[in-house]
Design brief:
single chain; 204 residues; mainly alpha; Hypothetical protein af1432; 2 domains; 0% strand
């Protein structure tokens, strides 16, 4: 764990959460803690600390694999968004997110009664911390429009993203109570979406 933390702290040093002065390492530590809290392994916890390192820094997969081993590096690679051209456009952003969702469903789907891919819990912990942080900020009284202006796309596409993720986690039957936390936060941040408000309990 020491190597993973040192890599995360070193490569993400100076980065902050969008629209805040909060050091980015706080998010990585929180995600790793969630993984452990919900039954994750040491490898998953290390990958949680490093889940953004290939996407947001210049560290390469080979360098990461050399530092922490193939198992952890592969989990991180599965958690990494695939680049698309013209990332700044809403269309490219959505295409990039759709690739992530497609890969999550394809690679994370159980192949038998015992199996769920190692990376699924890490992605769920990541997205849970993100949406719960969003909920906390919105409940603190920040203006809705001002809050979503922090991001590359607005509220409508953010709602599409989180509800699509929730649909994916339900489809691959993530065996973790953490998905309930994720669903509850999504429903509170986007209370006008009828799909999960009415049917989430039945689907789970």
């Amino acid at each position: 764990m020491n190597t993973a933390f040192q890599l995360a702290e070193s490569w993400h040093r100076g980065q902050v959460r969008k629209g805040t002065s909060i050091p980015y390492i706080s998010h990585l530590m929180a995600v790793s803690a969630l993984v452990l809290e919900y039954g994750g392994t040491r490898d998953q916890a290390q990958a949680a600390l490093l889940h953004d390192i290939l996407e947001d820094t210049e560290l390469t997969y080979e360098e990461l694999r050399h530092a922490v081993g193939e198992k952890v590096a592969d989990i991180v690679r599965h958690c990494t968004h695939i680049d698309t051209p013209d990332e700044k456009t809403p269309e490219a952003w959505k295409a990039r997110k759709q690739l992530y969702i497609d890969r999550l469903i394809c690679d994370g789907r159980p192949h038998d009664d015992e199996y769920v891919a190692d990376f699924v819990l890490v992605t769920l912990a990541d997205k849970t911390h993100n949406i719960e942080t969003t909920l906390r900020d919105l409940e603190s009284g920040i203006d809705d429009e001002e809050f979503f202006a922090r991001f590359n796309v607005g509220r409508e596409l953010q709602e599409w993203w989180y509800t699509s993720l929730l649909r994916a986690y339900l489809e691959i039957q993530v065996p973790s109570e953490l998905v309930w936390r994720f669903r509850d936060a999504v429903c509170k941040v986007f209370p006008n979406n009828p799909e999960f408000q009415e049917n989430a309990y039945d689907e789970m």
